[in-house]
Design goal:
The protein is of the alpha/beta class. It has 11 helices and 8 strands. The chain folds into 2 domains: 158 residues, HUPs (Rossmann fold, 3-Layer(aba) Sandwich), CATH 3.40.50; 79 residues, 2-Layer Sandwich (GMP Synthetase, Chain A, domain 3), CATH 3.30.300.
């Protein structure tokens, strides 16, 4: 039995209807596809537009839902109305996912659905993810993790089923670019989003993070794409573009992007 067959079978065994938290990435896309294959129109995908999600992610979720042919609901709320999230301490992800879980639970209740799932896979469990705990506390289950399925298999399933996101780089909410201890604001989020769009456009790279250190923009790109960045003419262009956004200094992280890195501001 293939991993996809196991995943679809999981839905058959665990409920007649399902709500899938669809982020726009490959993991939740595969889960949504399996749920749709198993349960048909008794499946609904829900994407939360919580104001820290890049427009690119939202559009990706819409595209995936169209490809799968699944009913797609977008719920809107503002994370920046939550002071616990805005202060951006070490528990930011926990507060973010607690709020998401509560909204998903309300939507599921409204739709009369008992089973809520997300795209967390077994590889995610090896990293410190307080957001996963928050979703569990709100009744969200993770079929990929429960079945022991990891990222490589997820991408292969997505490729086998012609999902456009099969090779899409992993992403995270824009607030993850702001070092812990620095307050999250609308202005910072929009500046980060604009900066990342500019970096992708100028260098033609796919995996990008622009870390906002106040006056300093620290650019991270995938290690396999680092050589594209070290072009003097393009560096001059991106330096000018990011300074137009309000940064005073622009730096490229020579180590490249590494998932799970957190920048911390010391209190002194």
């Amino acid at each position: 039995m293939t991993d996809f067959e196991r995943l679809a079978g999981w839905f058959v065994q665990n409920g007649e209807r399902a709500l899938v938290a669809l982020s726009g990435g490959v993991d939740s896309a595969v889960v949504a596809l399996a749920a749709k294959k198993a349960l048909g129109n008794n499946t609904v995908a829900v994407t939360a537009d919580y104001k820290t999600l890049a427009e690119e992610e939202l559009e990706s979720a819409r595209q995936v839902a169209r490809e799968i042919g699944i009913r797609h609901v977008i719920i809107e709320y503002d994370e920046l109305e939550n002071p616990e999230f805005v202060k951006n301490d070490g528990s930011r992800c926990y507060h973010c996912r607690t709020e998401l879980g509560e909204h998903l639970a309300r939507e599921a209740e409204k739709l009369g659905i008992a089973l809520m799932v997300d795209g967390t896979h077994v590889d995610d469990l090896s990293d410190y993810r307080p957001g996963i705990r928050a979703l569990r506390e709100n009744g969200v289950r993770s079929p990929l993790a429960e079945l022991g399925i990891g990222k490589a298999s997820v991408r292969q399933m997505a490729k086998d089923h012609n999902l456009s996101v099969h090779d899409r780089p992993s992403n995270a909410c824009l607030a993850s670019r702001i070092p812990a201890g620095m307050e999250v604001t609308y202005e910072k989020l929009r500046r980060i989003e604009s900066a990342e769009i500019a970096v992708k456009s100028v260098f033609g790279v796919r995996q990008v993070r622009v870390r906002d250190h106040g006056d300093v923009a620290r650019i991270e790109v995938g290690k396999d794409e680092l050589l594209r960045v070290f072009d003097a003419d393009k560096l001059a262009i991106i330096d000018a573009k990011l300074k137009e956004l309000g940064f005073k200094f622009v730096a490229v992280d020579a180590a490249g992007y590494r998932q799970g890195r957190l920048a911390v501001v010391e209190n002194g």
